[in-house]
């Protein structure tokens, strides 16, 4: 059984590459974040509407292991699955180069929830994420 609950296909843009001709390391955080936001959208959750309600999921920690570089115009698939650890939701995110399915990056992104600026257990996310927890 595939552990991933969501995937998104993207393409490297020229300006995301550095002088070495590979994607600059900082851009991978953009890919990971975009994937998480698109996952939320796919399950009917609006990141901006949450903020308007005083609910802010925020990144507490990121760990990234770079495996294979991406280059300009490479297509890639960003995949994720999710676990809950205490008050944290941990997104396990892997990116694969589409042409050969090589692993590009393995990342874990720990998120917490602020409600009206205070760190708290999120009953809303407990409910929303319950069908997707590994």
Search tags:
single chain; 134 residues; alpha+beta; Thiol Ester Dehydrase, Chain A; 6 strands; 22% helix; 41% strand; elongated
Mind explaining what this structure looks like?
With 134 residues, this protein is an alpha+beta fold. It has one domain: Thiol Ester Dehydrase, Chain A. The protein has 3 helices and 6 strands. Strands 1, 2, 3, 4, 5 and 6 form a 6-stranded antiparallel β-sheet that branches. The chain is elongated and about 45 Å long. The termini are close together. The relative contact order is 0.22.
What number is the mean pLDDT?
A: 95
Instruction: Please trace the helix and strand order, writing H or E for each element.
Output: EHHEEEEEH
The CATH class is Alpha Beta
By secondary-structure content and strand pairing, the structural class works out as alpha+beta
CATH homologous superfamily title = Hotdog Thioesterase
Low-confidence stretches: none
Cα distance spanning the termini: 12 Å
**CATH structural architecture:** Roll
